[in-house]
Design brief:
The protein has helices spanning 28-43, 53-70, 84-93, 116-130, 137-149, 165-173, 213-225, 260-264, 278-286, 331-337, 350-356, and strands at residues 9-13, 156-158, 161-163, 180-184, 194-196, 207-210, 230-234, 241-242, 247-248, 294-303, 309-314, 326-330, 338-344. It contains 11 helices and 13 strands. Helix 2 crosses helix 3 (84-93), helix 4 (116-130) packs antiparallel against helix 5 (137-149) and helix 7 (213-225) crosses helix 10. By secondary structure, the chain is an alpha+beta fold. The protein has one domain (9-356): Cathepsin B, Chain A (Alpha-Beta Complex), CATH 3.90.70. Strands 1, 4, 5, 6, 7, 8, 9, 10, 11, 12 and 13 form an 11-stranded mixed beta sheet that branches. A two-stranded antiparallel sheet has the order 2-3.
Length: 359
């Protein structure tokens, strides 16, 4: 690995909790959404806690199973989801601290869904094939999850007080899910109106407000300046994304046109970037070059040694990269590769909030 010559200086560095590792589970959406809620606790002056990502995921998977049946099996059964699923689960089921429910069994140190997911998917497919659902299917489904992740406690102690998931969410975390909004950007739907984003991970058919491509970074900038972090879903299959180097940008030249030397030094020096149009962004989405791959948490703003600005992004893959679990993502990459944003409505400026019809 050629050593990077990039030097980043933080401009905005908002409060967030420690880097986590989602392990062998495609639950980045839950890790990101709960990291976002933990930062919201910090912003509100509360002492943050590690919220159980796996509690959120297992409750969301139950909702996904119900939707799967209502659609007669016409739904993706992968582990992915959208960050709004975290708010939906919080609203319906509450939340737990990770200390009360980690989803780890025995001596396991990280979450591993490689056996759980096939077991659940096989069960659901058999049930759909049989066409008539038995009344106890949910009981059997929960029992399978319990076997891999452990049973959910009805109550648990936290700092000497007994809670349920509902009372813990209301009394300790204390956010209002209705205070948050999801945003996306497509050219084939009216701007500044809500629409259902048609990607496989939006199994809950949540609606996102459609904004222009240029709005995406303006929204993030204004939120960060006011102390609000942003949950972000994006495409990480792009050649301009490097977890190892901790950098993401839009290369000025196609990788196919680069020399071997240019490829080896893609993430070494401050990069030159291609400017992307809304039409190019939409075309990449429509032809599956941009896919809904990953969720991360935007917690700050930085600049490189040439003064170019990047977002400081918290990931959930542990600390095994150049920036101990964080990445620096260019604004052009965010405009090009963003699928969705989630933030507090108060992080939007009043004019923009009014344009969306939000109170």
């Amino acid at each position: 690995m050629v050593r990077s010559e990039l030097v980043f200086t933080d401009i905005i560095n908002l409060g967030c909790t420690a880097i986590k590792n989602q392990g062998a589970s495609n639950t980045c959406w839950s890790y990101t959404g709960n990291s976002f809620l933990e930062s919201e606790m910090l912003r509100m002056g509360k002492k943050p806690i590690e919220i159980s990502q796996i509690y959120t995921a297992r409750q969301a998977y139950l909702e996904k199973a119900r939707t799967y049946f209502r659609l007669h099996g016409g739904l993706s059964l992968k582990e992915g989801g959208q960050v709004l699923d975290v708010l939906n689960t919080y609203r319906k089921y509450g939340a737990m601290p990770r200390s009360a429910y980690s989803g780890l069994r025995g001596n396991a140190t990280y979450n591993d869904f490689r056996k759980l997911t096939p077991a659940l998917n096989t069960m659901l497919k058999v049930l759909v094939k049989n066409k008539r659902l038995k009344s106890n299917w949910e009981q059997a489904y929960r029992a399978t999850v319990d076997a891999y992740l452990g049973e959910l406690p009805a109550t648990f102690d936290y700092n000497g007080t007994s809670y349920t998931a509902r009372t813990f969410a209301d009394q300790v975390i204390g956010i209002n899910p209705d205070d948050y909004v999801g945003l996306a950007s497509v050219t084939d739907r009216p701007y500044y109106a809500p629409f259902v984003l048609l990607v496989p991970d939006n199994w809950s058919f949540d609606r996102f407000y459609n904004v222009q491509m240029k709005d995406l970074t303006l929204i993030i900038d204004q939120a960060l300046e006011q102390g609000f972090t942003v949950a972000w879903t994006t495409d990480i299959s792009d050649p301009g994304f490097s977890w190892r180097y901790g950098i993401a940008y839009v290369p000025e030249k196609s990788v196919d046109q680069m020399t071997v030397e240019e490829k080896n030094r893609m993430f070494v020096k401050p990069p030159r970037e291609k400017k992307v149009s809304p039409e190019e962004r939409q075309a990449a989405f429509d032809n599956w070059e941009t896919t809904d791959d990953h969720a991360m948490h935007i917690v700050g703003l930085a600049k490189d040694q040439l003064g170019k600005e990047y977002y400081r992004v918290k990931n959930s893959w542990g600390k095994s990269n150049a920036y101990n679990g964080y990445l620096y993502v260019s604004k052009e990459f965010v405009r090009f590769k963003t699928l969705t944003l989630m933030l507090h409505k108060a992080g939007l400026n009043p004019d923009f909030r009014s344009k969306l019809g939000l109170s």
